[in-house]
Amino acid sequence: MGDLLLGEKSAVIYGGGGAIGGAIAQVFAREGARVFIAGRTQAKLDAVARGIDAMGGKVETAQVDVFDQEAVEKHADTVAATAGGIDIALNAVSVMHDQGTLLADLSQEEFMRPIDGFLRSLFITSKAVAPHMGRTRPGVILTLSEPGSKLAVGGILGHSVSAAGKEAFSRVLAAELAPANIRVVCIRPHAVVDAPAAGSYTKDLFRQTAAAAGQSVQELLEGGGMAQGTLLKRLPTLSEIAETAAFLASDRAGAMTGTIANLSAGALVD
User: Fold this and answer.
1) Mean pLDDT estimate for the chain
2) Can you name the CATH fold of 10-263?
3) CA distance 192 to 19
4) Taking the model in full, what pTM does it have?
5) Alpha-carbon Rg of the chain, whole angstroms?
């Protein structure tokens, strides 16, 4: 177990049935963590769990609505009681929202959808896990953002504000929880399209923008769009995101907190 990044650690992943959450859950389990994945769709959680089981990892699933604060806190209490505490928590929850509509045609409801959805779920999950972390055993809370937090591009008002909010939330939470020996690190990847699990959400999210440019979603992301706007001329892979998350969650990254891990392939240069 000594050679594993996350040996003997417990990790809770909200949105664990999704593309990014599922990929990270598998790498966490491979690196020795006991993984607890939670989400709204049991079938997706089961699919991730089968992959982890097949490689001999430790995984448990729970159908939890991250917008139900009481249910999330009850689940966190159960995980902590089962594992003796929570060492790592990741919020990988996705909220479908508008991209491509300019201010003149954007409704208040669509503007607020990602802001309320992403930030409310982040608040609820962080509040639930924090009491079970830190002190004599270091704790880590990982969050996810997007390059939209800093891009000056039309048509992503709600998306951009929510991403910037997640990064600000992470920085301030890091300051609050540092005395309790809990680190908070935000991961900022770009769009990811290299796994079937990412399909429907990605296609739905960028369909309007792609149509306005006269492109398919795949062309927008890879051929002449987002990928070409990065320094590496490609988008990050699920594997790269998951491997980075495992490192950040490990004791090897013990001095990192209150910061953003930029995995945008150079779409943003900090």
Assistant:
1) 89
2) Rossmann fold (3.40.50)
3) 9
4) 0.89
5) 18
Q: pLDDT tens digits for 40-96? A: 999 999 999 999 999 999 999 999 999 999 999 999 999 999 999 999 999 999 888
d(CA 8, CA 31): 9
Q: Count of residues for the chain?
A: 270
What are all long-range contacts of 118-121, with beta carbons under 8 Å and residues at least 24 apart?
A: 118/93, 118/162, 118/163, 118/165, 118/166, 119/162, 119/165, 119/166, 119/169, 120/67, 121/14, 121/66, 121/67, 121/91, 121/93, 121/95
Distance separating alpha carbons of residues 122 and 255, to the nearest angstrom: 23
Report the Cα 138 to chain-centroid distance in Å. 20
For β-strands 182-189 and 10-14, DSSP reports them as: unpaired
Q: Which two tokens stand for residue 121?
A: 């779920």
pLDDT at residue number 1:
45
Tokens found for residue 186? 């935000």
Q: Domain ranges for the chain, please list them.
A: 10-263
Distance of alpha carbon 69 from alpha carbon 125, whole angstroms: 8
Say if residue 35's pLDDT is above 50.
yes
Helices marked H in 31-136: 42-54, 69-83, 108-129
- Kindly state the average pLDDT of the residues 120-130: 98
Which helix (H) or strand (E) segment holds residue 34: the answer is: strand 34-39
Residue type, 49: A
- Span 173-197, pLDDT tens digits: 999 999 999 999 999 998 876 654 4
